[in-house]
C-alpha cells in the first residue's frame, strides 16, 4: 500500500515538471496502465515505441552482448519523447524542452 | 616383351655386411623406338593438359525457388487485452488495470524507471542543448586567398588575315554575349582582302561566332544599346555611324551619310539616356563630337567642335580618341584627345563655344581610356602614354594620383563596377594589370600576362568578375577574377573616398603654394620653407621630385636675374668712371696750355 502511493507520487511528480506534455505507462501488450493523454494517442505511441525500443535494444545487444538499453530519447522539432524500457513495462514521457 | 634382370646372392652371404662399391654405368637394355608404331597415332598439337597434384573438385550452382515475402503491419487501436477482459467494458478494463497496479513488479519497475526519467527531464529543463551561443558575432570576412585571375575562354578571329580587336561590348541582359569590333588601326596599312566583319560571340561557344555584323567599312567601336539589347551601334573606320538590329540580320539597318559623318575613324560612341532610347553620340579624331538620333541617322542632330581656344575653328580642333558619359550626370560629358588633354563639356550650354567647360592636361600622348569612378563620379580615370592617372574635377592643374611610368604603353583602362578602389589596365606588352589602391599604391595588386601580342581593349562585365580583353591579333580573352577582387571589402567605400579627398586636398595645397611662389619670384629671392603636409604614400616621392625640380628651376631663374641685375650695375659703374676721367683730361689740357704759355714767355 505504501509502495503504491510511492508510484502515485512518482508519476505525479513527473507530470508536474516543467515542459512535460504527457506521461504514460504501457505494458508489453500495449495496454495503457496509466496515461494522461487520450486512449487512441496512447495506444499509437505504445505500439510504435514498443517496436522501436525492441529494435534499439537488439542493436545495443548486437554491438556488445554485455550491454543493455537503459533509456531512449527522440528529439523532434516539436518536442522530445523519452522512453524508459523495462522487461514488461514502458514508461513514456513527452516533454517540450524549449525555454 | 619381358625384361628381366636377375640378381644373384649366395646363401652364405645373407646377413653379411654390405660393402658398396662404385662401378661405371652398365647398359642393360636398349630398346630403340619402332617407327612403324607411329603410324597408328595421330599427332595432336597443341596439347592442353593440366598437371596438378591436388584433389579435383567441381563447382555447381543452384537457384532456389523464389520465396515471396510481404511486410504487413497492423494498426492497433486497442491494446492486447487478455482473453478474459472485454476491452469495451469499462468496468473490466478498470479492474484489470487495478490488478496490474497492485503487482509488485509493477511498483518496482515504475519507481526505478521514474527516477531515471526524472533525471532526464530535469536535464532537459536545465540546459537547452541546441542553443545558439555565438549569434551576435558577425562572420569575419577573411580574404586569405591571394588575388588571382584565370582565363576561362579565348575567342579567336576566324578570319585568315588577323585584325585587331579594337572594342568590346557586353550584352546588357545577362552578359551571355560579347560583341567585338575588329579593324586594323595602322594608318593605310590594312592588308588587301581584309574582311570588314565584326562578330558577336556567345560565351558558351568559342569556336564560332554567334553572329557576324557586315558593315561597309571595318568597325572601330561597337556598343549595345542598354535599353534595347537587340540594337547595336557601330562607329566605322571611314567615319560613318552604323546601326544594327540583331533580329533583322547581319546587314546594316541604318547608316549615316558620308557627307555629314566624321572624316576620321570614329573612336568613341556611346548611347545616351533618353526616353526613346535612340540617341547616341560619337567622337572622332577629326575634332568633332556629333549627336545622332538613330531614327534619322542621315544627319547628326548636333555637332560640337573641340576647339579649346573657343573659336570653333576646325583647324585648331583637337582630335578625340575617347569619350565618356555617365548616365547619372546627363548634361556633362568628357572627351579624351590625341594631344593628351581631357576636355570636360557641358551639353546644355547655350552657345557652342560655351559647351567646353574646362580642360585637364597631364598626359604626353593620346588618352586611350576615360572613365568616371562608378561610385564617386567626381573622380575619373585616364589612361594614356605610359601611365594611368586619376583626376578630380576640382583639381584642374594636375591629376591627384598616378601610376609610375611603365615600360610599355598603356592602351585601355576601366574601373571595377563593384569595388570603388579597383581598376584594370592593359598594356602593349600583353599584360593586364589589376590595381587596388586601398591595398597597394605603387604597384598593381595583380599583373597577368594574357598573351604575347599587345592588348588593345578591355571591358569589365557588370558583376565585376569577368573581364574581356582584346588583342592585336584579334584574340579576345575572357578572364575570371578571384572573389577577393570582385566583392566589396568592408569599409572600402569610405576608405576610397577618404583617399580621393586627401589627394585632392594635397593637390589644392600644392597649387596654392605654387601660385604663392610665382608671386614671390617677382619680388624676393628666398629659400622656401618645407611646408609639405603630405601623408605617407609612395606617390609622395614623385610629387617631391616634381616639387624639387620646380624649386631648382626657380632658384636658377632668380640667380640669373640677380646676375643680370649685377651686370646692369656694372655697366652703370664704368660709365660713371669714364665721365670722371673726361673731366680730368680736360683739366690736364688746360694745365698743359698754361705750361706752354709759360715757355713762350720765358
TrEMBL record, chain A:
One of its GO terms (biological process) is microtubule-based movement. Keywords: Cytoplasm, Cytoskeleton, Dynein, Microtubule, Motor protein, Transport. PANTHER family: DYNEIN LIGHT CHAIN ROADBLOCK. One of its GO terms (cellular component) is microtubule. It is found in: Cytoplasm, Cytoskeleton. The lineage of its organism: Eukaryota, Metazoa, Chordata, Craniata, Vertebrata. Acts as one of several non-catalytic accessory components of the cytoplasmic dynein 1 complex that are thought to be involved in linking dynein to cargos and to adapter proteins that regulate dynein function. Cytoplasmic dynein 1 acts as a motor for the intracellular retrograde motility of vesicles and organelles along microtubules. Coiled coil: none annotated. Homodimer. The cytoplasmic dynein 1 complex consists of two catalytic heavy chains (HCs) and a number of non-catalytic subunits presented by intermediate chains (ICs), light intermediate chains (LICs) and light chains (LCs); the composition seems to vary in respect to the IC, LIC and LC composition. The heavy chain homodimer serves as a scaffold for the probable homodimeric assembly of the respective non-catalytic subunits. The ICs and LICs bind directly to the HC dimer and the LCs assemble on the IC dimer. The keyword Calcium does not apply. InterPro entries: DYNLRB1/2, Roadblock/LAMTOR2_dom. Residues 7-95 form the Roadblock/LAMTOR2 domain. This is Dynein light chain roadblock. GO terms for molecular function: dynein intermediate chain binding. Belongs to the GAMAD family.
UniProtKB/TrEMBL annotation, chain B:
GO terms for molecular function: dynein heavy chain binding; dynein light chain binding. Gene3D superfamilies: YVTN repeat-like/Quinoprotein amine dehydrogenase (2.130.10.10). Keywords: Cell projection, Cilium, Cilium biogenesis/degradation, Cytoplasm, Cytoskeleton, Dynein, Microtubule, Motor protein, Repeat, WD repeat. It comes from the Eukaryota. It is found in: Cytoplasm, Cytoskeleton, Cilium axoneme; Dynein axonemal particle. Belongs to the dynein intermediate chain family. Part of the dynein complex of respiratory cilia. Residues 580-602 have a biased composition (Acidic residues). This is Dynein axonemal intermediate chain 2. Its main location: cytoplasm. InterPro entries: Dynein_IC (IPR050687), WD40/YVTN_repeat-like_dom_sf (IPR015943), WD40_repeat_dom_sf (IPR036322), WD40_rpt (IPR001680). One of its GO terms (cellular component) is 9+2 motile cilium. One of its GO terms (biological process) is outer dynein arm assembly. It holds the Pfam family WD40. Residues 564-602 are annotated as: Disordered. The gene is DNAI2. Consists of at least two heavy chains and a number of intermediate and light chains. Interacts with DNAAF2. Interacts with DNAAF6/PIH1D3. Interacts with HEATR2; probably involved in outer arm dynein assembly. Interacts with CFAP53. The keyword Repeat applies.
Amino acid at each position: 500500500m505504501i509502495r503504491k502511493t510511492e508510484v502515485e507520487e512518482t508519476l505525479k511528480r513527473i507530470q508536474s515538471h516543467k515542459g512535460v506534455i504527457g506521461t504514460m505507462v504501457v505494458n508489453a501488450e500495449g495496454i495503457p496502465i496509466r496515461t494522461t493523454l487520450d486512449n487512441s494517442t496512447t495506444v499509437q505511441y505504445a505500439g510504435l515505441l514498443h517496436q522501436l525500443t525492441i529494435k534499439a535494444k537488439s542493436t545495443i545487444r548486437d554491438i556488445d552482448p554485455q550491454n543493455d538499453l537503459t533509456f531512449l530519447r527522440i528529439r523532434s522539432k516539436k518536442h522530445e519523447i523519452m522512453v524508459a524500457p523495462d522487461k514488461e513495462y514502458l514508461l513514456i514521457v513527452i516533454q517540450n524542452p524549449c525555454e | 616383351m619381358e625384361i628381366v634382370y636377375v640378381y644373384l646372392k649366395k646363401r652364405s652371404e645373407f646377413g653379411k655386411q654390405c660393402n658398396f662399391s662404385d662401378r661405371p654405368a652398365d647398359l642393360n637394355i636398349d630398346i630403340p623406338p619402332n617407327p612403324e608404331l607411329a603410324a597408328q597415332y595421330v599427332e595432336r598439337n597443341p596439347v592442353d593438359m593440366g598437371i596438378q597434384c591436388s584433389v579435383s573438385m567441381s563447382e555447381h550452382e543452384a537457384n532456389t525457388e523464389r520465396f515471396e515475402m510481404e511486410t504487413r503491419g497492423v494498426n492497433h487501436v486497442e491494446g492486447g487485452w487478455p482473453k478474459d477482459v472485454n476491452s469495451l467494458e469499462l468496468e473490466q478494463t478498470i479492474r484489470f488495470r487495478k490488478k496490474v497496479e497492485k503487482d509488485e513488479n509493477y511498483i518496482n519497475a515504475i519507481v526505478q524507471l521514474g527516477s531515471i526519467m526524472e533525471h532526464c527531464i530535469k536535464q532537459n529543463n536545465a540546459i537547452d542543448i541546441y542553443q545558439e551561443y555565438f549569434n551576435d558575432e558577425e562572420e569575419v570576412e577573411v580574404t586569405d586567398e591571394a588575388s588571382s585571375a584565370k582565363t576561362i575562354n579565348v575567342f579567336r578571329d576566324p578570319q585568315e588575315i588577323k585584325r585587331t580587336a579594337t572594342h568590346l561590348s557586353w550584352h546588357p541582359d545577362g552578359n551571355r554575349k560579347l560583341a567585338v569590333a575588329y579593324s586594323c588601326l595602322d594608318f593605310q596599312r590594312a592588308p588587301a582582302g581584309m574582311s570588314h566583319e565584326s562578330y558577336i560571340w556567345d560565351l558558351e561557344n568559342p569556336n564560332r561566332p554567334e553572329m557576324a555584323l557586315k558593315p561597309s567599312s571595318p568597325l572601330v567601336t561597337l556598343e549595345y544599346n542598354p535599353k534595347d539589347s537587340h540594337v547595336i551601334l557601330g562607329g566605322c573606320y571611314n567615319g560613318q555611324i552604323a546601326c544594327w538590329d540583331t533580329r533583322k540580320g547581319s546587314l546594316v539597318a541604318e547608316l549615316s551619310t558620308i557627307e555629314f559623318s566624321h572624316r576620321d575613324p570614329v573612336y568613341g560612341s556611346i548611347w545616351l539616356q533618353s526616353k526613346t532610347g535612340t540617341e547616341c553620340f560619337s567622337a572622332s579624331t577629326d575634332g568633332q563630337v556629333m549627336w545622332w538620333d538613330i531614327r534619322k541617322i542621315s544627319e547628326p542632330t548636333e555637332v560640337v567642335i573641340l576647339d579649346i581656344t573657343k573659336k570653333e575653328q576646325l583647324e585648331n580642333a583637337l582630335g578625340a580618341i575617347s569619350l565618356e558619359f555617365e548616365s547619372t550626370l546627363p548634361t556633362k560629358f568628357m572627351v579624351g584627345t590625341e594631344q593628351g588633354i581631357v576636355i570636360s563639356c557641358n551639353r546644355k550650354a547655350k552657345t557652342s563655344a560655351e559647351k567646353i567647360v574646362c580642360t585637364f592636361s597631364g598626359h604626353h600622348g593620346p588618352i586611350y581610356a576615360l572613365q568616371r569612378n562608378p561610385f564617386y563620379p567626381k573622380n575619373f580615370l585616364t589612361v594614356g602614354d605610359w601611365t594611368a592617372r586619376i583626376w578630380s574635377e576640382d583639381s584642374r592643374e594636375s591629376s591627384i594620383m598616378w601610376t609610375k611610368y611603365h615600360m610599355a604603353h598603356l592602351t585601355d583602362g576601366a574601373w571595377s563596377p563593384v569595388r570603388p578602389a579597383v581598376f584594370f589596365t592593359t598594356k602593349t606588352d600583353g599584360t593586364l594589370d589589376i590595381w587596388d589602391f586601398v591595398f597597394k599604391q605603387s604597384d598593381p595588386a595583380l599583373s597577368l600576362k594574357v598573351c604575347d601580342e599587345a592588348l588593345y581593349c578591355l571591358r569589365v562585365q557588370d558583376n565585376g568578375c569577368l573581364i574581356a580583353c582584346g588583342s592585336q591579333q584579334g584574340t579576345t580573352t575572357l578572364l575570371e577574377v578571384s572573389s577577393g577582387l570582385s566583392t566589396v571589402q568592408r569599409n572600402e567605400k569610405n576608405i576610397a573616398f577618404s583617399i580621393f579627398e586627401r589627394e585632392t586636398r594635397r593637390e589644392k595645397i600644392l597649387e596654392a603654394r605654387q601660385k604663392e611662389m610665382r608671386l614671390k619670384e617677382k619680388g624676393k629671392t628666398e629659400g622656401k620653407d618645407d611646408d609639405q603636409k603630405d601623408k605617407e604614400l609612395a606617390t609622395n616621392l614623385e610629387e617631391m621630385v616634381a616639387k624639387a625640380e620646380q624649386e631648382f628651376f626657380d632658384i636658377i631663374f632668380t640667380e640669373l636675374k640677380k646676375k643680370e641685375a649685377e651686370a646692369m650695375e656694372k655697366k652703370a659703374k664704368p660709365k660713371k668712371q669714364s665721365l670722371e676721367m673726361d673731366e680730368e683730361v680736360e683739366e690736364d689740357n688746360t694745365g698743359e696750355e698754361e705750361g706752354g704759355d709759360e715757355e713762350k714767355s720765358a
